[in-house]
């Protein structure tokens, strides 16, 4: 939580870079978890409650934008994840957080857990076979991912 809290402070201090969707309601977060078949880690739930989804400068962190996930779009994590599951049979343990723009998706990987039993953030390349995926661990948890992203954005 410490890294999430630090990232949140940086976001608030640089509000001129922020475009968010307003916090997601608790029932929307619960519905998103049920549809995706996962329990989000606490720091990601806080992010969703605080921001919904977030554009911070040039980065766009996926979240929960509205409760009608089928009629949503980017940066809605439910819509994006379900879309990739349908189009390319992306594994169900992956939940999309960020698109690098270079063909790589950053995902919460519920098969790669840290010592707190939270999903680590791994890479995924759509269009490559599962055998070719390395699912490289990029971050230990969501808070570390968010902090790194906002720090990178402010230079």
Please give a structural write-up:
This protein is of the alpha+beta class. It has one domain (2-154): SMI1/KNR4-like (3-Layer(aba) Sandwich), CATH 3.40.1580.10. The protein is built from 5 helices and 7 strands, in the order αβααββαββββα. The strands form 2 sheets. Strands 4-5-6-7 form a 4-stranded antiparallel beta sheet. The protein has a 3-stranded antiparallel beta sheet with strand order 1-2-3, covered by helices on one side. β5 and β6 (119-124) form a beta hairpin. α1 (2-13) packs parallel to α5.
What topology does this entry show?
Elements: H1 2-13, E1 18-20, H2 26-36, H3 42-51, E2 54-56, E3 59-61, H4 77-88, E4 94-99, E5 105-113, E6 119-124, E7 137-139, H5 142-154
Antiparallel strand pairs: 1-2, 2-3, 4-5, 5-6, 6-7
Q: What keyword list fits this structure?
A:
about 160 residues, alpha+beta, SMI1/KNR4-like, 4-stranded antiparallel β-sheet, 3-stranded antiparallel β-sheet, 5 helices, about 20% strand, globular, Knr4/Smi1-like_dom, SMI1/KNR4 family protein, Knr4/Smi1-like_sf
The level of helicity is 25-40%
Number of helical elements: 5
Q: Please count the beta strands (DSSP E, at least 2 residues each).
A: 7
Straight-line distance between termini: 23 Å
- Tell me, rounded to a whole number, the average pLDDT: 94
Low-pLDDT stretches are none
Name of the CATH architecture? 3-Layer(aba) Sandwich
Strand content: 15-25%
Structural domains: how many: 1
Strand order of the largest sheet: 4-5-6-7
User: What is the general shape?
Assistant: globular
Q: What is the CATH superfamily classification?
A: SMI1/KNR4-like
The SS-based structural class is alpha+beta
- H/E element sequence: HEHHEEHEEEEH
CATH class assignment = Alpha Beta
Radius of gyration: 14 Å
């Amino acid at each position: 939580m410490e890294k999430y809290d630090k990232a949140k402070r940086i976001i608030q201090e640089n509000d001129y870079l922020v475009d968010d969707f307003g916090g997601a309601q608790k029932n929307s977060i619960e519905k998103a978890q049920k549809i995706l078949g996962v329990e989000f880690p606490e720091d990601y739930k806080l992010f969703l409650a605080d921001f919904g989804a977030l554009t911070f400068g040039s980065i766009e962190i996926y979240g929960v934008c509205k409760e009608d996930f089928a009629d949503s779009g980017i940066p809605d994590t439910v819509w994006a994840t379900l879309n990739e599951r349908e189009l390319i049979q992306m594994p169900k343990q992956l939940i999309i957080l960020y698109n690098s723009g270079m063909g790589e998706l950053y995902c919460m990987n519920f098969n790669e857990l840290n010592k707190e039993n939270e999903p680590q953030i791994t890479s995924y390349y759509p269009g490559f076979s599962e055998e070719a995926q390395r699912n490289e661990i990029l971050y230990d948890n969501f808070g570390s991912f968010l902090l790194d992203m906002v720090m990178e954005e402010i230079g």
